[in-house]
Automatic annotation (TrEMBL):
The gene is waaF. SUPFAM superfamilies: UDP-Glycosyltransferase/glycogen phosphorylase. The keyword Transcription regulation does not apply. Its EC number is 2.4.99.24. It is an enzyme of class 2 (transferase). NCBIfam families: heptsyl_trn_II (TIGR02195). Keywords: Glycosyltransferase, Transferase. Gene3D superfamilies: Glycogen Phosphorylase B. The keyword Cell membrane does not apply. It catalyses: an L-alpha-D-Hep-(1->5)-[alpha-Kdo-(2->4)]-alpha-Kdo-(2->6)-lipid A + ADP-L-glycero-beta-D-manno-heptose = an L-alpha-D-Hep-(1->3)-L-alpha-D-Hep-(1->5)-[alpha-Kdo-(2->4)]-alpha-Kdo-(2->6)-lipid A + ADP + H(+). Belongs to the glycosyltransferase 9 family. This is lipopolysaccharide heptosyltransferase II. It holds the Pfam family Glyco_transf_9. It comes from Pelotalea chapellei.
Length: 323
């Protein structure tokens, strides 16, 4: 969701060298990226853990002699490291007790804070006079990665001409965001029959049980890649899909950023701020009084998800494809 703002930064500073400082998983999304020249990994759990690790990272950053940093996240850490590194111009939101670490500050009003995250990042950079044409979220998949994805699929009988439906039943944040394996399976079965399509299940290492349950429901008539891909491989494989059905998750945003039509199922999270930022998406959600609660686990009966039926999702997918 930061990529439109990064695109504006690239347009405003066409000759600049732009380096991204990000955690290891996010760093993979940008390695490479059309608007970024270099990526530095911020490993909070490893080399950069604790105060000693932060000082080590700041020393690494200092070696690059950066002229300016634009702090997109709102965490204290994200402003602390550039301050420790002595970057002379430090721009960011005035929040989380980090105002003194910034040389110029953004103070959005309450109404601005209620919008989409993509718009928030754009407003932040524009506040500092960095202007340009807003672009859609974008990720870069290389030709080699596309070829490797095609080869991997071909080994399982999925050819380039096949219509491919991606199913993403996981959500790393917590179980409250996850719809049910048997319902994902029913949607996959019905859409695959209607569109003469093949099905691929995606997921991270912690989501293999959910994916396996869907694979069992589909009696093996699918390709289960949950826990078997790197971030870069996941991007290339999602880009190959013709349609995507997903919970609110990182892969949902990847699908939007590589221009794949999708249906996103929302329950405990707030779609107004984190919905897929594309006109090729339909959101399925129910207006229940306790949603969005933004909790990792549901403390009651998970009605925000139990009320979403397979019919709801299939109908949404059909309408989007018809459009």
């Amino acid at each position: 969701m930061t990529t439109p703002a990064i695109g504006v930064i690239r347009e405003y500073f066409p000759q600049a060298e732009i380096t991204l400082l990000a955690n290891p998983i996010v760093a993979e999304l940008f390695s490479p990226h059309a608007w970024v020249d270099r990526v530095i990994r911020f490993d909070r759990k490893g080399a950069h853990k604790g105060i000693t690790g932060r000082l080590r990272l700041a020393a690494e950053v200092r070696k690059h002699s950066f002229d300016m940093v634009i702090v997109l996240p709102n965490s204290f850490d994200s402003a602390l490291v550039p301050w420790l590194a002595g970057i002379p111009v430090r721009l960011g939101k005035n929040s989380d007790g980090r105002g003194l670490l910034l040389t110029r500050r953004y103070n959005p009003d309450k109404q601005t804070s209620k919008g989409h995250e993509v718009q928030y990042y754009l407003d932040l950079v524009r506040h500092f006079g960095i202007t340009g044409q807003a672009r859609d979220p974008q990720l870069t998949v290389t030709t080699q990665e596309e070829q490797q994805a095609a080869s991997r699929l071909a080994q399982t009988g999925i050819e380039p001409q096949d219509f491919l439906i991606g199913i993403n039943p996981g959500a790393a944040f917590g179980s409250a965001k996850r719809w049910y394996p048997e319902r994902f399976a029913e949607v996959a079965r019905r859409l695959a029959h209607e569109w003469n399509a093949k099905v691929v299940i995606f997921g991270g290492p912690g989501e293999t049980d959910i994916a396996a349950a869907i694979e069992q429901e589909l009696a093996g008539t699918c390709l289960n890649l949950a826990g078997k891909t790197t971030v870069r491989e996941l991007m290339a494989l999602i880009r190959r899909c013709n349609f995507f059905v997903t919970n609110d998750s990182g892969p949902m945003h990847i699908a939007a950023a590589v221009d794949v039509p999708l249906v996103a199922i929302f329950g405990s999270t707030d779609h107004t701020g984190t919905s897929p930022f594309t006109d090729k998406a339909v959101i399925v959600r129910k207006n229940v009084h306790c949603a969005p609660c933004k909790l990792r686990e549901c403390p009651t009966d998970h009605r925000c998800m139990t009320e979403v039926t397979a019919d709801d999702v299939v109908t949404a997918a059909q309408k989007l494809m018809g459009r």
